[in-house]
Amino acid sequence: MADPAAILPDPPPSVVPGVGVGTWAWGNQFLWGYDPAQDDTLAACFHRAVDLGLTFFDTADSYGTGRYGGRSESLLGDFVAALPPARRQRLTVATKLAPFPWRLGRRGFDAAFEASLGRLRGHLDRVQLHWSTARYAPWQEGPLLEGLADLVAEGRVGSLGISNLGPRRLRRVHDQLARRGLRLASLQVQLSLLAPDAIGAHGVASVCRELGIELLAYSPLALGLLAQPPGESRAALPAGPRGLLFRRLGPRIQPLLQTMERIARAHEAPMAAVAINWCRAHGALPLVGMRRPDQAEAAAAAAAWCLAEEERQDLDRVALRGEARMPANPFQSA
Questions:
Q1: pTM for the full model?
Q2: CA angle 32, 191, 171 (to 5 degrees)
Q3: What 3-state class would DSSP assign to 242?
C-alpha cells in the first residue's frame, strides 16, 4: 500500500489537458480479443474520434499479438492516410519503439523506425522509447536514445518522447537530450485511480511540470475496471486475463466505484468520464483505449467538463487508501 503522505494532491494544472486515443487493443488478441472482422468498426471509431476533435493518437511497434504484430500501426496508418490532407495535418501520431535485447547501439532502432514509418504510411510525428533498459541492460539505453535523437535532429520525425520512466531516469534522459539542444516532448506512464504513483510527492508528474514535459497517462480506465458501475454482475466480466483481474480486484474497489458513481451522476456522465477527468485534473493527457464509435463519443464528451476541486480531492482520498492496485508494472523504471 502506498504511503498516503507520499501521494498528496497536486495543485490544479493551469491548463487542463484534452484527451488522446490509445490503440493498444488494435491487433491484440491475447488481452483484447482482436479479430480482423473488427477493422471496419475500428475505422469508424477512428473517424468518429477525429470528427469530435481528438487529435493525439498513440501506438507502438509491439502492439499486436502473434501474427498480428504491428497491426495497430498498420491500421492507424491506413486510417490516417484516408483523411483529407487538411484534417491529417491536425493530428499528432506517436509510436513507441521497443528496446528488445537485439536492438543495440546508436543505430539499433534504425530498422524498427523505418518499419514503423512504413506501416504508418509516413505519418509519424513523435517517436518514443517504449521502456527503459535500466533494470536489465543499462548500457543499452543511452546509445538507443542517441539514435532516436539523431532522427529528430535530422528532421526525420518531429519530436521525441519516452515511456515507463521514473523521476530519476526522467531527469537523466532530459539532461542527455538537453546537452544536444533537443527537447524531451513527453513521458508516458501508467496512471489511473488504481495506479496513482505518478502523482505522488516523489512521482514523475511534478518533475514533468518542472521540466516542461507533457505527461501522458496510459490505461486511465485500468483495463476497463474503472468503467463499470459498482456491483456489476460477474456475468458482465470480460473473458480471458482481463476477467481474472476483474474478479480479483472488483470486490476490493467498490468504495472507489461508489464515489465515482456519485460524481458521474452529478455530471450526468458515464463512469469512464470520471476516471478520464481525474487524470486530466492531475495534468496528464489520458490515452483512452477505444474500439467503437460510442467509446470515442464518450471520451470526447469527457473532455467537455472538468472535476470540481472537491470532487478531485474525494477521489484522491479514496484512491490513496490503497484497498486495491493494478499489478506492478514490469516495464516501469525508477
A1: 0.94
A2: 125
A3: helix
Q: What is the mean pLDDT of residues 105-115?
A: 97
Distance CA 263, CA 285 (A): 20
Please tell me the distance from the alpha carbon of residue 133 to that of residue 143, in angstroms, as a whole number.
11
User: What is the distance between the terminal CA atoms of the chain, rounded to a whole angstrom?
Assistant: 18
Q: Which of 34, 63, 68, 218 is catalytic?
A: 63
**Dist CA 100 CA 87 (whole Å):** 34
Least confident of 68-77, 111-120, 248-257: 248-257
pLDDT in tens, 8-55: 455 556 678 999 999 999 999 999 999 999 999 999 999 999 999 999
Catalytic, 63? Answer: yes
Mean pLDDT score, 258-279: 97
- Here the CATH number for the domain that contains residue 67 is 3.20.20.100
How far apart are the C-alpha atoms of 295 and 57, rounded to whole Å?
15
Its domain, for residue 41, covers 15-229+270-310
Q: What is the DSSP letter of 163?
A: E
Grid coordinates of 303: 473532455
* pLDDT value of position 234: 58
| Other CB atoms within 10 Å distance of the CB of residue 43 | 15
How many whole angstroms from its chain centre is CA 305?
A: 20
In a domain, 206, yes or no: yes
What contacts 205, CB < 8 A, 6 or more positions away? 10, 198, 199, 215, 282, 283, 284
